[in-house]
Amino acid sequence: MNRPIALITGASSPRDMGTAICRKLAAQGLDIFFTYWQAAADWAQTLEQEIAEIGVRCSSYCIDLSAADAAGQVYEEIRRTLGTPTVLINNAAYSTNDNYMTLNAQTLDNHYAVNMRSTFLLCTEFARGLEQSDLAWGRIINMTSGQDLAPMPGELAYAATKGAISAFTRSLSRELAPLHITVNAVNPGPTDSTWMTDDIRSFLLPQFPMGRIGTPDDAARIIAFLASEEAQWITGQIIHSEGGFAR
């Protein structure tokens, strides 16, 4: 039996969104290929074993997604180990705090390399590979952070580069629709994963009308739906799955 293969970038700790997405898609019967960076090597081995115990294939790849040839390396490795992916989740991101006083060329380049170049080239590599295969459909899901909903002062480079993903998603969706490849983006809102401290939780909690902060599992659920055959009529959308978060 040939299962769909999902490529997920940025599964680097037990509490991050990439890991939650891997677990959710594996539970739905997809083979999993995920990327991580060096510091997460021990966790990557643990996650591989955990997913393999579900009964699907799993492989991982340590790579610096800021490298200019990263997308090509990722696709060479996934084809070698598992095959041609039918689902791509661009979850990895780069983020630092910067404002008009501190923003400089290096900061912009660091954000661009991961948030834009890596995401865009992974998308196009995915589409070209799927077009050359005998697979009937594909799913691309990019991650945004609500940049079109409200300003993000103090995070200028992050807001600019993640905001560009929305424009790219809409345009690419039109190009790939004839190939039955859907392209959508998800804004999960503030999510209680590796970056959130107790002070941040206390500040954000009153802004969630459901009485809790979003979790990586919340993000994984909407992504799993968009990755399924049931979502074949949804493309070119920026979906704000934030639990009613009030800015």
From TrEMBL:
Record-linked Pfam families: adh_short_C2
GO MF, one annotated term: oxidoreductase activity, acting on CH-OH group of donors
Domain of life (superkingdom): Bacteria
InterPro entries referenced in this protein's UniProt entry, alphabetically: NAD(P)-bd_dom_sf, Sc_DH/Rdtase_CS, SDR_fam
SUPFAM superfamilies: NAD(P)-binding Rossmann-fold domains
Keywords: Oxidoreductase
Family affiliation: Belongs to the short-chain dehydrogenases/reductases (SDR) family.
Protein name: Oxidoreductase
Organism listed in the record: Paenibacillus bovis
